[in-house]
Design brief:
30% of the residues lie in helices and 25% in strands. The chain is built from 10 helices and 17 strands. Strands 1, 10, 11, 12, 13, 14, 15, 16 and 17 form a 9-stranded mixed beta sheet that branches. It has a 6-stranded mixed beta sheet with strand order 3-2-4-5-6-7. Strands 8-9 form a two-stranded antiparallel ribbon. Helix 9 packs parallel to helix 10. The radius of gyration is 21 Å and the shape is globular. The mean pLDDT is 95. It holds the Pfam family tRNA_U5-meth_tr. InterPro entries: MeTrfase_TrmA_AS, SAM-dependent_MTases_sf, U5_MeTrfase_fam.
Length: 348
Amino acid sequence: MPHFNACGGCVMQHASDPFVACWKAGIVMGALEGQGIEGEVAQVLTSPPGSRRRARLSGRRLRKGALLGFHARASDTVVDNPRCRILTPALMALRPALLDLVQLAAPRSREIGLTLTESPAGADVVVEDARDLDTALRQDAAAWAAQAGVARFTWNNDLVAQSEAPWQPMGRARVVPPPGAFLQATREGEAALVALVLDATRGASRVADLFSGVGTFALPLAETAEVHAVEGEAAMTEALLKGWRGAPGLHRVTAEARDLFRRPLEAAELGRFDAAVIDPPRAGAEAQVARLAEAGVRTIAYVSCNPASFARDARVLLAAGYRMDPITVVDQFRWSAHVELATRFSRA
């Protein structure tokens, strides 16, 4: 337990797994009670140590050497962590090369951000707030990528090097996400959420996937149903559709880039779907949930990364006559206060 009292990512590393699971279930129940909802947590599925395949670290250049790690809790202090117990072994093996990258990329005056994603083809590395690239620095950066053996390397939104496309499996499809794109943090957590969503929407022939990302749910759903995927970033919907085109035997998938906060799908647009999947960011999806309730979509699979906004949205659906199934907590951020969950809302 070397870092629980310093690193903001592992504030509960000193506690037992059963205690943390109970604590996280309690967070969910507390959020529901705050909205006057009676609910049940059926299970807590916790990803194992060393399974975090995507993470955003911070790096700071020192007079001699560099720091690389997560921030301390509620602080801008970078906690150097050479023995992180949450990142995958493949990402941890990159640490010496990443320390070299920090020294190469970081200005003296500020820290840089490094988003790391493990893929079957190798690591996808994105560095942000780095020094401006000139010709010499670009050459040094490309040489770093070759020596580190990463699949793709992006510097301040500029693609510097790519030896292989850093694809991710999504059901039968292979998807190459845009640099730094959102993915579920662990493979185990993603598999659990996909299984829950597939079970919740079983029997549906037309499914709306709202806040679809690059197709985590849409592409597995397309094995048995037609899917319309909606996501705010066009680069993500393009990656989803490219993956769909390359996968044999899937049902039809359509996609649109649309800001669901400002322009949610209206009830009339939702009427053709017999199920919907919604996986919003931490703010939840108040406007979109109101339209889902108005449309009366028979089944809604709700995936959430914030129990408070989930409970607020759940109250709207329950008031519209939906029934909420027992909730599954999917803990991809073990030892942290972060809680993810999934459940089904159904209406006769």
